[in-house]
């Protein structure tokens, strides 16, 4: 098929099918390509132009690539305040740090080019990296450099003073002194200007002094380096301009697709840079900067600054709104310029009175147990997923931090340019967060009550699952009667599956499910998030009653199946006896084929057909003679009613199941309902009245005449009867008793 080649249209169609695939119709709503603007098309155009430019003659190609590389490097150094720097352009954002490590090794070990790893063996190099750095960064460096993991030190962050995400400078100083005394060579320190998790910046000024003291190389990376292009830069980030090298990821900051990352560095020996791979003598390698060169010219200085400034304003807008929300705890290093906002739900935290909260922190806050922290992590995981689903343009995600646990992160510099995040998206994010906070607080508050109700209810088993974001997990216990484990497990699964189906059929706002696809408990009912008006006792009672109903129906079906099986066997035996009796009555001659036909013709034998019918209600066999005589089948007795749960609760109009009315109106609603029922009873007992203009029917006329005749007869009798006063008193007493 491919031997003769294909035309351009077929190849492009193949690429389109590979990009979208057959799942385009199914995932058309959830999946869409990034909307690249003109600046994105400029970056994509750079890759095509690089392929065309590479076919030029060598001299013209050398001049063009030198111009592109020098212009791009000069612009970036001026934009990010990095004077007298060189640039290395790379696709993988870790590749720049890897080349820097090679450069430092070549610089500190003069005979490394000749002797290789033997030089490293005599004096082991040490690389220091923060524990808050990207996961797997240190291991990747050691693997690429061929160094053992003993050459890597993960420096812990502060635990007592300052940010909990900053490198502990005092501890780093002690580690370096110990390594020097042990005969090792401190080589390089990797610091953060915006940690990947919380976006905090290390004390770069103090770290630079420490590196100069021990003749170490300082490399800085992080999202906060983008703020160097702004007019106002915090002093902690501004110190990054004095470091030995830094890595910039302009593609995510400016929303440019397929743009290489850039590592700016300062070094005076070009030969060592060439040996480390930071520079290349091949002109084609220099064309990596062409997409970035085109994009920078298209955006210009003002366009780049405006994009970074817009991202910072989005973070500030979100941070200001989060300060006014209760139960939301933020983790921001610099409230004036931090482009990363990390927040989490915490019921013990309040933002309305931060002064008193800070003053009484030592007395109010109680240590959170491991179970409580696990529950908070689960709820914040659910919160982050819900916000990302409701407001996809916000770009929020969930991050795991060492001290805070699971948090929701809004990193505008990494997502706003790509997703096109605007101010209204941030406001929508805050509105969604306001709607989710009451749900989180109510669910967290009712979890304990739900657990207590389930443990007090016979037939239900509470399953503790701290990783489930919801009210809780419950299982209906099947009362086995000496059954084996396999049959009991199947029956338990059947009952709980039917229970889940019945609960989902109810008209309620709750979500019932089988739990997560992986890692969940089997044969359980998982209840999702709830609101504050949930009636927990009614919910638990309904679950228990529905489970008992399903179990009783299952037992009734099993008993009926056994009765039917025995009835069929008995019917077969009785029919066999009836056939034998019929043979004896007819005689032997009637059984012979020819003789029997002649004999039946001369002397027909008439006998009523005998059959059996099985009465499911009584569970017994009955004869069918009465059916053939009366030409109709008997109905038998009425079957017993199916057991149902008696949970009919009086509700207000429009009130759903499992919802309790407001506490302030409970007494009023009960009083009004009782008085309303009394009024209905009085109206039922009151004789019907006739409206003034209503005509009387014939029956009503007859009744009226009869009443008149009775009244007249009574009056006549009373008139002709003489009664004493004593008799009148007796009559009045009798009437009062009546």
Tell me what the structure shows.
The chain is of the alpha+beta class. Among the domains are: 308-347 and 370-440, Aspartate Aminotransferase, domain 1, CATH 3.90.1150.170; 457-553. 51% of the residues lie in helices and 11% in strands. The protein is built from 26 helices and 17 strands. The strands form four sheets. The protein has a seven-stranded mixed beta sheet with strand order 1-7-6-5-4-2-3, with helices on both faces. A hairpin with a 3-residue loop joins strand 10 (397-401) and strand 11. The longest helix is centred in the last third of the chain and has 51 residues, at 536-586. The chain is elongated and about 130 Å long. The N and C termini lie far apart (108 Å). Residues 24-33, 353-365, 639-648 and 663-738 have low confidence and may be disordered. Belongs to the group II decarboxylase family. Pfam families: PDXDC1-like_cen (PF22930), PDXDC1-like_cen2 (PF22937), Pyridoxal_deC (PF00282). Keywords: Coiled coil, Decarboxylase, Lyase, Pyridoxal phosphate. Residues 338-444 form the PDXDC1/PDXD2 second domain. Residues 676-685, 700-709, 717-738 have a biased composition (Basic and acidic residues).
């Amino acid at each position: 098929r491919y031997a003769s080649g294909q035309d351009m249209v077929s190849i492009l169609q193949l690429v389109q099918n590979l990009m979208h695939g057959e799942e385009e119709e199914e995932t058309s709503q959830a999946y869409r390509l990034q909307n690249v603007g003109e600046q994105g098309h400029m970056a994509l155009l750079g890759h095509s132009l690089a392929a065309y430019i590479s076919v030029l003659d060598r001299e013209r190609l050398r001049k063009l690539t030198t111009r592109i590389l020098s212009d791009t490097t000069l612009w970036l150094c001026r934009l990010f305040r990095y004077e007298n720097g060189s640039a290395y352009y790379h696709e993988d954002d870790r590749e720049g740090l890897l080349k820097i490590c090679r450069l430092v090794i070549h610089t500190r070990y003069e005979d490394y080019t000749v002797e290789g790893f033997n030089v490293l063996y005599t004096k082991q190099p040490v690389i220091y990296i923060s524990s808050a750095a990207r996961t797997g960064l240190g291991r990747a460096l050691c693997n690429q450099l061929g160094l053992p993991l003993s050459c890597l030190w993960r420096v812990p962050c502060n635990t007592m003073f300052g940010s909990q995400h900053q490198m502990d400078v005092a501890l780093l100083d002690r580690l370096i002194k110990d390594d020097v005394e042990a005969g090792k060579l401190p080589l390089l320190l990797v610091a953060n200007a915006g940690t990947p998790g919380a976006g905090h910046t290390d004390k770069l000024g103090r770290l630079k002094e420490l590196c100069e003291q021990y003749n170490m190389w300082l490399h800085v990376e992080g999202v906060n380096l983008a703020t160097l292009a702004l007019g106002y830069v915090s002093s902690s980030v501004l110190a990054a301009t004095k470091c030995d090298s830094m890595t910039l990821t302009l593609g995510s900051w400016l929303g440019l697709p397929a743009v290489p990352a850039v590592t700016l560095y300062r070094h005076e020996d070009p030969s060592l840079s060439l040996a480390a791979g930071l520079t290349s003598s091949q002109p084609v390698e220099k064309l990596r900067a062409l997409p970035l060169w085109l994009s920078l010219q298209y955006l210009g200085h003002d366009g780049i600054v405006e994009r970074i400034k817009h991202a910072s304003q989005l973070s500030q807008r979100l941070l200001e709104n989060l300060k006014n929300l209760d139960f939301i705890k933020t983790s921001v290093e610099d409230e004036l310029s931090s482009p990363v906002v990390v927040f989490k739900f915490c019921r013990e935290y309040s933002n309305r009175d931060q002064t008193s909260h800070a003053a009484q922190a030592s007395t109010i806050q109680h240590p959170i147990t491991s179970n409580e922290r696990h529950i908070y992590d689960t709820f914040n995981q659910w919160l982050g997923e819900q916000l990302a689903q409701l407001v996809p343009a916000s770009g929020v995600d969930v991050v795991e931090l060492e001290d805070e646990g699971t948090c929701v992160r809004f990193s505008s510099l990494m997502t706003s340019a790509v997703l096109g995040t605007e101010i209204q998206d941030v406001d929508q994010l805050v509105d969604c967060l306001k709607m989710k906070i009451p749900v989180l607080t109510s669910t967290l508050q009712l979890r304990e009550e739900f657990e207590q109700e389930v443990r007090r209810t016979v037939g239900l088993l509470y399953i503790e699952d701290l990783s489930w974001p919801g009210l809780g997990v419950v299982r209906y216990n099947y009362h086995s009667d000496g059954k084996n484990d396999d049959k009991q497990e199947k029956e338990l699964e059947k009952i709980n599956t039917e229970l889940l189906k019945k609960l989902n059929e109810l008209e309620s706002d709750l979500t019932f499910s089988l739990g997560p696809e992986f890692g969940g408990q089997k044969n359980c009912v998982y209840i999702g998030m709830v609101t504050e008006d949930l009636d927990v006792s009614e919910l638990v009672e309904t679950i228990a009653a529905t489970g008992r109903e399903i179990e009783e129906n299952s037992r009734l079906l099993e008993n009926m199946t056994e009765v039917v099986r025995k009835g069929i066997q008995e019917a077969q035996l009785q029919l066999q006896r009836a056939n034998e009796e019929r043979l004896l009555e007819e005689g032997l001659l009637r059984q012979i084929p020819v003789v029997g036909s002649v004999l039946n013709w001369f002397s027909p034998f008439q006998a009523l057909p005998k059959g059996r019918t099985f009465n499911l209600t009584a569970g017994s066999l009955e004869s069918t003679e009465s059916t053939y005589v009366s030409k109709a089948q008997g109905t038998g007795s009425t079957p017993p009613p199916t057991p149902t749960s008696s949970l009919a609760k009086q509700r207000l109009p429009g009130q759903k199941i499992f919802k309790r009315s407001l506490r302030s109106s409970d007494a009023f609603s009960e009083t009004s309902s009782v008085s309303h029922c009394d009024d209905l009873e009085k109206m039922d007992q009151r004789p019907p009245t006739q409206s003034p203009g209503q005509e009387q029917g014939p029956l009503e006329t007859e009744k009226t005449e009869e009443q008149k005749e009775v009244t007249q007869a009574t009056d006549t009798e009373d008139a002709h009867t003489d009664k004493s006063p004593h008799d009148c008193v007796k009559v009045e007493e009798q009437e009062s008793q009546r």
